[in-house]
Amino acid sequence: MADGHGHSRCVKLTKDQGPVDDITPGELNQPIQVPQLNIHRCVECGQVLPESYEPPADEDWATGIFGCFEDAESCYTGFFCPCVLFGRNIETLRDDIPWTNACVCHAMCIEGGMALAAATALFHGVDPRTSFLICESLFFAWWMCGIYTGLFRQSLQKKYHLKNSPCDPCLVHCCFHWCALCQEHREMKNHLSDNAETSMTVVSPPQTQEMNTCENRESATAPSTGYEGHTNLELQPV
C-alpha cells in the first residue's frame, strides 16, 4: 500500500468514466500477416525465391489438341453443349465458381452471339443493312470466345506448368474452341486420376498371433519357480 505522500500504482475506477467499446467475439484472435514469413522457397533445395518467380512452363499436354475422340463423353458434350463442358472444366479448376455460372456466361456470350447472327440472317436475310449486325454479333462471340475462355486455359497452364500448345491460349480458343475445351477436360481428368493413385495408401493388416497352451503354462510357471528359488535361501548367523 502507498502512504499519503507517495503515488499509488493502482487506478481507481469511477462512474464518470465512459463505457468501454464493445468488442466483437473473436476480434482479438485474428491472424496477423507477417510479410517476412511469406517467403517462396524451392521445393527441392529450400532456397529462397523472389516474389516475381514463376515456375517454368515446360510440361507437355497429356493429349493433343485434335485428340477429341480419345474421350468420347467429353467429345460429344463439347460438340453439342460446349457451355456445359466449359462449366465442368471451370468447376474442376476453381472451387469457388459453380459450373452453372460459367455455363450461363458461356451460353450468353458465345452461343448468344452466334444465335443472334443466325437469327438475323434467317429472318432478315443477308443484305447491306443486316450484314453489319451479323458481323458484329459474330465478332463479339469470337472475341469473347478468345478472351474469356482463353484466360481460364492460361490459369490451367499455370497450375500444371503446361507449355503453350499449339500457340497462345487465347489464340487457341479463337481458332479451335471446341477442340480446346475437350483437351482441357482430358488434361484435368488425367491429373485428377494421377493424384488419386498417388494419394492411395495400402495398409496391410497385422499378422495373426497365436499362442499355444503349453507356452502359456510355461510362461505362467516361470516367475513362480524363480521366486521359490529366492525363498529357499536361509540366513545363517555369523
From TrEMBL:
UniProt lineage:
Eukaryota, Viridiplantae, Streptophyta, Embryophyta, Tracheophyta
Region span, Disordered: 201-238
Quote the biased-composition stretches of kind Polar residues, using this chain's numbering.
201-224
What name does this protein carry? Cell number regulator 6
Q: Which residues cross the membrane?
A: 103-124, 130-151
Against Pfam families, the record matches this protein to: PLAC8 (PF04749)
Which UniProt keywords are given for this protein, alphabetically ordered? Membrane, Transmembrane, Transmembrane helix
Q: Specify the species.
A: Dipteronia dyeriana
**Record's InterPro entries?**
PLAC_motif_containing (IPR006461)
